[in-house]
Amino acid sequence: MPTLFTACNSTKKRINSPVVQNTATPSAKVPATHTLKREDIKSEITLWHYDEEEGIKIIKAFNAVYPNAKVKLFHPRVKDPNNRNQLTSLIRSGIDVPDVFYCEFDFVKRLVETPNVCADLTERARDYVGNMVPYTIDVGTDESGVLRALAHQACAGALTYKKPIARKYLGTDDPDKISEMMSTPEKMLETARIIKKKSGGKVALFPTYEEPQILYLGGRSAGWIVDNKLNIDKKMIDFIDFAKTLRDNKYEARLNQWSPGWSAALADDEKALVWACPIWGIPWIVCSNDKKAANGGRWGLAKPPYPFFWWGNWFGIYAKSENQDLAWEFIKYFTTDKNAMKEWSDYSEGLPNNLEVISQGSVEDSKIMGTNIFKFYEPLIKDINGKLITQYDDTINNAYQDCMRSYLAGKTKSKDEMLKSFKDKVKTLLKDVTVE
After folding, report:
1. Inter-residue contact 280 to 349 (CB < 8 Å)
2. What is the pTM (predicted TM-score) of this model?
């Protein structure tokens, strides 16, 4: 998750403090309408954002063009692992519910699928969705086809690789050749075998099996839930064998994703070759952990074997909000205004959810990766399947991960036992889902 790290030349940090803040000068309430000029809109909304510092920046950017609108920031205590429960409790009570939600992809899907929580944005967004990355629309749309949340960013995924390692053990750091070497499970395993042999076992293909797991999740034909039943897609069954092969042959470095060792491996030229890399991963994964990356020449981007996205945030409007006009103006500004999206992209070093802006390419090539980032990721976004995401993904993904770790550690003795354990966990955790 981007906000957990410090990117190149960035001083971002999480702040643990109070819940509600005013970030604009109070003004008299008047109904906001679609015909008013921006400076004439003087109503008030509350924004839920899980990160205080970023929430303040968002509101300041909005007030720069809507100077008389009042936006209060409501944020949880960020060290509380159950901060989502705070918003859920407010929604259940119906008291002091924020007008606008800004939530991560798995949580917003839960809100989108819960009746009477997120307002219908279908008509309001009709003229804008055609210029948005398709998978972001799918994530924000409920099972009945009603659009209820919009994203201002697209988190398309790729592979990033260490050029010094590629040159030393594969004889090339050409992105097209590396992409070909990573284009199928069989080719990935062959590439891993070559690296292990030529490095004397010092270097692995991946720092952890969790990197390709993200790819396999994106390559599924259907999500975890189909017709309210647990669905274990063939890709995830195949992945069990793939991950076991990686582990048994030391083709992955046995590091847990986001652990200190995993982060340190990014700067180590004798540890691993390939990481999964959404566009935000360039500053937040690579550059924040490999201080030499900013000088260029150390990292490259390759195409993944399966299309995927990793993380991302969506805006939604509370269905019972009495301030939906201003709430829509707020969301519309960040998800449709090209200048706003360009500015936010420059700040966050991310991909704007705007096909026209993406097609124009980045303002300049990335020194870290040596290529135009927008142009590289542009062809990858079209095949990402946002319909794979369900409201239960955080729970099910965590259960799958726990079972995979146990299996790869030898605590679970067989693939069949691993799958049974996974099903049992889901059955226990999700009472309203059928598990067969």
Report:
1. yes
2. 0.89
**Alpha helices (runs of H) in 94-232, residue ranges in sequence order:** 105-113, 134-139, 163-170, 175-181, 185-199, 210-218
> Which class in CATH covers the domain with range 2-155+311-360?
alpha beta
Nearest-angstrom CA–CA distance, 270 and 262: 13
Nearest alpha carbon to residue 154 among 410, 383, 397: 383
- Which class does domain 157-308+386-429 fall in? alpha beta
Integer Cα distance of 157 and 278 in angstroms: 4
- Over the chain (436 residues), what is each successive 10-residue block's mean pLDDT? 40 30 34 59 90 90 94 75 78 94 91 96 97 97 97 97 98 98 98 98 98 98 97 98 98 97 97 97 95 96 97 96 96 94 82 95 92 96 96 96 98 97 98 96
Residue in 175, 176, 174, 194 with CA at minimum distance from that of residue 186: 194
Question: Are the C-beta atoms of 30 and 42 separated by less than 8 Å?
Answer: yes
Count CA atoms closer than 13 A to 308's CA, side-chain side.
23
CB atoms < 10 A from the CB of 146, how many? 14
Residue spans of the domains in the chain: they are: 2-155+311-360, 157-308+386-429
